[in-house]
Amino acid sequence: MKRAEIHTKAEKKFTIMLFFGLLVLSATASASSCPIDPTFPSCFKLGASTAAYQIEGAWNVSDKSVSIWDNFTHRVPRVTVDNSTGDIACDSYNLWQRDVEMAAEMGLDYYRFSISWPRLLPKGYDYYVSKDGAEYYNNLINGLLERGIEPVVTLYHWDLPDILQQLGGWTNPLTADWFANYARIVFDLYGDRVKTWITINEPIVVCDAAYAAGYTAPGIKEPYSGVFVCTKNVLLGHAKAWRIYDKEFRHLYEGKVSISNHMIWFEPKTKADEALNELAMQYINGRYAHAIYSEEGGWPSSLEKYMAEYSAKQGYPRSRLPVFTEYEKTLVRGTFDFIAVNYYTTKLIRPAREGEVVSDLFVSGIPDLNAVMESPPTATYGYSTLMSIYPKGLRRILGWLKDTYGDHEMMLTENGFSSSGSELNDQERIDFIRNHLEQLLLAMKVDHVNVSGYTHWSLMDNFEWLDGYTSKFGLYEVNFTDPMRERTPRASANYYSKIIKQRKLDICC
Ligand SMILES: *[C@@H]1O[C@H](CO)[C@@H](O)[C@H](O)[C@H]1NC(C)=O
Ligand SMILES: *[C@@H]1O[C@H](CO)[C@@H](O)[C@H](O)[C@H]1NC(C)=O
Ligand SMILES: *[C@@H]1O[C@H](CO)[C@@H](O)[C@H](O)[C@H]1NC(C)=O
Ligand SMILES: *[C@@H]1O[C@H](CO)[C@@H](O)[C@H](O)[C@H]1NC(C)=O
Ligand SMILES: *[C@@H]1O[C@H](CO)[C@@H](O)[C@H](O)[C@H]1NC(C)=O
């Protein structure tokens, strides 16, 4: 764990600096005891995020077609813990002006939202664009710009047109082309006003949570091949969309395009688990990053070798990880203008013990690696016991990305805290934001990671996938029994707003 040691060393250095700082403080009573200057660079941006299916509702209005999430949540018995669906959700299709107002109330630099593919292209393909769908996003983008808020747009936040799922969805290589065609329509419609784009949000959920685990839409469990075919196709879809932007739109609009990966920081449980830890890092993070960000492209070599050997041992005639041709490697390599990261959790990794079965991906560990995930002993928890909270992991994953792929601009596109109650006085969320922003500042100011923005998840409570409406992530509370879906700022919204205004974190004051 060379890198963790490097960071640990840097952290030690801080403690020493802090110690001397305190000495100086007590000597002069004027110098700050702060290990870092808590101000954000002037070009650093703070925003908040949502996703179409989680907030829009209006699942069946106008000519919108059903998405795989509409289909999934409508199944009986229901898949969500509270039997809920996103049919109405926050009703942002009708209440988007209030969403813009909330972003303005907090003074957000930007608002990251996603476009619903089946709302904009009801047929799935690019030969028919919904007038109402196009107008909805047009209004939202203009509304934000009128209030001085930059729109940051995600093209795909898990809501594939169901009609394309009938043809195999992301396990069909043609979906990569259909996605790229959809991307071209969106760039063409909004590229004059939208300068920051995310192609796909958290492909690990699109492929691993969906196909390896069967937890999320389309709910087809095929952990042997489906998940890895999906991984490759998602990378190709992202790359094709980036190349369309690069070739057809960059010279006109000078925007930036990337992909938001959900990154888990892993640490070995014991010294003996370092090799397994490295493999877990590649399995979860490198599998969706290496082909894009590394100089050589393709799969991470340690993972490629492991999967070839492991597949042979399992009796498969070829590796379950599909081959990248040289053409495909070149197509995907370098297709980014910045590195986008969603960070929520850190896990310790160790091999399964004799007789211990690793059955469920994420819940117990990584079945393909026979590896068990544990939460760091000092971690805390919000609503979910799976998402152990460990702010230091944020600094370490950013450092790992820089060490592994080079010194590129990075943007945190998600980070947030879930609670089970609707309380407005959410001190835990405030602490979560402060602790993570502190680690982000350390990454920037001490490790010299070039981070350009922080995006809080989420602007407001919303449909939290399988947790339905039981898990609350919002800076704003939403009353889901109110037909008007009244939104009320929590203490964290006021806190975040203050940080944005001051451009300075409230540590060591
Ligand atoms: C939902 O998905 C199932 C399984 O793929 C499919 O048979 C069904 O037609 C879909 N329903 C709708 C309304 O699209
Ligand atoms: C969800 O619906 C099932 C019947 O389909 C019922 O047994 C269960 O109690 C319901 N759960 C909740 C939380 O309403
Ligand atoms: C749309 O769905 C709602 C339920 O969310 C239902 O009440 C309404 O009748 C549906 N409208 C159409 C046009 O199917
Ligand atoms: C960070 O990246 C941006 C975009 O590439 C660049 O303009 C800026 O100079 C970089 N900042 C540092 C400190 O390297
Ligand atoms: C939520 O809305 C309902 C219906 O308007 C109302 O009766 C209830 O008091 C509201 N709840 C809160 C906490 O404001």
Automatic annotation (TrEMBL):
- Secretion signal span: 1-31
GO terms (molecular function) for this protein are: beta-glucosidase activity
Query: InterPro entries, per this entry?
Result: GH (IPR017853), Glyco_hydro_1 (IPR001360)
Which controlled-vocabulary keywords does the entry list?
Glycoprotein, Glycosidase, Hydrolase, Signal
The Gene Ontology biological process terms listed for this entry are:
carbohydrate metabolic process
Q: Does the keyword Transferase apply?
A: no
Question: Does Ion transport appear among the keywords?
Answer: no
Quote the SUPFAM superfamilies the UniProt record gives.
(Trans)glycosidases
Q: Pfam families from the xrefs?
A: Glyco_hydro_1
Which family would the database say this protein is a member of?
Belongs to the glycosyl hydrolase 1 family.
Subunit description: Homodimer.
Name of protein: Myrosinase 1-like
